[in-house]
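Re: your question from the hallway

Yes, I did run it. Sequences:
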Amino acid sequence: MAETWLPSLRTATPQEGFELATKLARIGVKVTQPSAEIRDKLRAAYDHDAGQLIASSQVIAIHFQTVAAANDYWRT
Amino acid sequence: MAETWLPSLRTATPQEGFELATKLARIGVKVTQPSAEIRDKLRAAYDHDAGQLIASSQVIAIHFQTVAAANDYWRT
Amino acid sequence: MAETWLPSLRTATPQEGFELATKLARIGVKVTQPSAEIRDKLRAAYDHDAGQLIASSQVIAIHFQTVAAANDYWRT
Amino acid sequence: MAETWLPSLRTATPQEGFELATKLARIGVKVTQPSAEIRDKLRAAYDHDAGQLIASSQVIAIHFQTVAAANDYWRT
Amino acid sequence: MAETWLPSLRTATPQEGFELATKLARIGVKVTQPSAEIRDKLRAAYDHDAGQLIASSQVIAIHFQTVAAANDYWRT
Amino acid sequence: MAETWLPSLRTATPQEGFELATKLARIGVKVTQPSAEIRDKLRAAYDHDAGQLIASSQVIAIHFQTVAAANDYWRT
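Structure:
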């Protein structure tokens, strides 16, 4: 991952912030399992597993806290 | 999800903030499993599973932290 | 849930704040599984399951962070 | 629990703060399972279960964040 | 644990802060299971269990948030 | 671990901050299971386990909150 994939935590809207949080959650999986082939295989299973979907949603929630704070909650 | 579903984190009351947190938790599942049909099937199972209900409640709790902070805890 | 059940995050004491956190954790389960009958059945099982009791305690802990911050930790 | 068990989040030292966090984690279990007899039985099992010990340690960690913030990290 | 084991959350460096977080995670287990003999037995099992190693790492991460904040992130 | 492996929480970019968070998550596993041989064996299993990949991603997310706060979210 030599390319720049995270230049900033700023986003224009809360919704884009949520999308960035989703991306960060996926990158967190990717750095642990770099093989796209294996990730795709695992994904085919876990997106049918309610427990793992909820766990994924939780990781997004944690990243969204960070992104929201970085954007001062898009208050202004 | 091209439409705007999260224009702001501000809500008029803490209760509406809790409802927004619930919505964010559900969107977090939706972005991982976009098929409504599969989600409905999984939901029929997990809403009878105490562990997964508690896990869902936890994701809501994390998002509620964010929404509450964004609203300065509805102090004023 | 059209009635107002969360008018404010302010409580007079830390102890009442903890009680509010407990209530929020329960509401988080309720919004996912609205049937009181099913929740009662699940509860009869999970309150004998140490893992789920600890998980419940964790959700309360997360909400207590929010409520405590909202009350400026009852410092004054 | 009509008696006062949480008059304040202030403690004299970080160590007493950690003890308060431990107490809060236990109260979180107690409010979900009020029967001391059942809790004692469950405890006999879970304190031999590494996963549940780590989960308990995590709940303490979350409460310790709250207590530490309430005491301004005992900086002064 | 009558002796003082946590006089302060201040550390000289981030690395010492991480070590303190590790210690706090262990104390959290210790207060729940005070028997060193049982803990040693459990440890022999769980340090070969990837899920429990990751869970341990998570508890350390939560405590590190607290210790880092207490040290103002060692900014100065 | 007598050498210095964490001199600072400051990084030049959010992306380097994410990499530091990943490193911290790994160190958290390492301090619990110091044997590289055993960790490698466990890793061969858990990087094929979706639940553990998501759990690893969560630990990274928690550390990223800390690193992002330490860098004032790379705002300036």
